[in-house]
């Protein structure tokens, strides 16, 4: 098949959307499909044998690291030249709308993958969006995009319910894969642990972007837990503020590849704080790494964690819930081992190869529907 992937983010950005697209393109190429990637901003023009068409972009106010794709004729020209069988809209918000319109004009079916809760995102950046109505406006915009897609893929039950309530139909659950060869308990590093836990502390860590929508300020609730050393892996606009709040924590900055995998596996407890995660890939990576997880019991994590068996779910509405559960896990090695072992077993079949092959099945089905409508 020939697949045009129109994505709101791609390399060199490191985030959930860019990483998912990268894994999709890897697998498509490995299984004989041809892909074209359309992405905003500067970056590589080729990836894994696929051409990457770059379009004009504008830095998002309040979030300079995120280039927002601008509408233009380049998308339709690239799409017409490539002649795809299907267009994959990766987390469509801005550039995805341009791709959707181009696909409709060219008579190509679209599969829209919901991945970013932009309304929830806006809630944490009121200064950037300049209006108290931004959340409602973005919700209506999102609903319009997904109602016009031929098929919509959602990463969790919460996302399914969210879009269904907005009148979006043809919803299908499509979760993310995890690189089990990379994220593995065997990557646990005694050297890292000695460096981070110089007094034998329990290592409690967060991995991800250091940004307002991740609610990383809540890590301060864990700063004075006895016998605990906080480890913060990642970078982002609130890193400086967070370092001032957590002077005793270890900040590693952005890590990738084997360094990231070693950091995950060397933790005792992984904690996530954000409430607006449609999936939460870092939870899955921590589980694959054999680490006990404490995550919010809302959104995507509620699908990934079975409370008391594959992790612990805290209630974001309860002020002491996060602290109490992390404190419990930090005091109980047997509990951590129980949660980690069950979680590793739960993710054992969630390879990227399996989930991208499932995605290709969705491509084939919408192409078949398109042929049937034409007939």
From TrEMBL:
InterPro entries cross-referenced by the UniProt entry: Glyco_trans_1, Glyco_trans_4-like_N, Glycosyltransferase_grp1
Domain called Glycosyl transferase family: residue spans: 198-345
Matches recorded under Gene3D superfamilies: Glycogen Phosphorylase B
Keywords, alphabetical: Glycosyltransferase, Transferase
Glycosyltransferase subfamily 4-like N-terminal domain ranges (all copies): 14-181
Classification via Pfam families: Glyco_transf_4, Glycos_transf_1
GO biological process: carbohydrate derivative biosynthetic process
Domain of life: Bacteria
GO MF term set: hexosyltransferase activity
Name the UniProt record assigns to this protein: Glycosyltransferase family 1 protein
Source organism per UniProt: Nocardioides mangrovicus
């Amino acid at each position: 098949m020939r697949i045009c992937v129109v994505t709101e983010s791609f390399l060199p950005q490191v985030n959930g959307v860019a990483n998912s697209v990268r894994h999709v393109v890897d697998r498509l190429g490995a299984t004989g499909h041809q892909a074209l990637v359309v992405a905003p901003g500067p970056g590589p023009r080729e990836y894994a044998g696929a051409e990457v068409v770059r379009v004009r972009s504008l830095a998002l106010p309040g979030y300079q690291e995120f280039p927002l794709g601008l509408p233009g004729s380049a998308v339709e020209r690239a799409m017409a030249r490539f002649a795809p069988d299907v267009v994959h809209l990766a987390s469509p918000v801005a550039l995805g709308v341009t791709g959707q319109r181009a696909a409709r004009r060219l008579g190509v079916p679209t599969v829209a993958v919901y991945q970013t809760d932009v309304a929830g995102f806006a809630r944490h950046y009121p200064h950037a969006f300049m209006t108290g109505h931004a959340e409602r406006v973005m919700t209506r915009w999102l609903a319009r995009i997904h109602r016009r897609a031929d098929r919509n893929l959602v990463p969790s039950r919460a996302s399914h319910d969210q879009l269904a309530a907005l009148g979006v139909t043809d919803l299908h659950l499509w979760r993310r894969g995890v690189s089990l060869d990379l994220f593995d308990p065997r990557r646990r590093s005694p050297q890292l642990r000695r460096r981070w836990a110089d007094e034998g502390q329990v290592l409690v860590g967060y991995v991800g972007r250091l940004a307002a929508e991740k609610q990383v300020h809540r890590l301060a609730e864990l700063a004075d837990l006895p016998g605990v050393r906080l480890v913060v892996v990642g970078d982002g606009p609130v890193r400086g503020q967070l370092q001032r709040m957590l002077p005793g924590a270890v900040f590693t900055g952005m890590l990738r590849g084997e360094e990231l995998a070693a950091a995950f596996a060397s933790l005792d407890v992984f904690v996530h704080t954000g409430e607006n995660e449609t999936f939460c890939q870092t939870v899955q990576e921590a589980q694959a790494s054999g680490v006990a997880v404490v995550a919010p019991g809302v959104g995507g994590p509620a699908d990934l964690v079975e409370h008391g068996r594959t992790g612990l779910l805290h209630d974001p509405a309860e002020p002491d819930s996060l602290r109490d559960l992390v404190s419990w896990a930090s005091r109980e090695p047997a509990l951590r081992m129980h949660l980690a072992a069950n979680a590793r077993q739960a993710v054992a079949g969630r390879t990227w190869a399996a989930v991208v092959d499932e995605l290709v099945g969705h491509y084939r089905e919408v192409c078949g529907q398109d042929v049937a409508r034409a007939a």
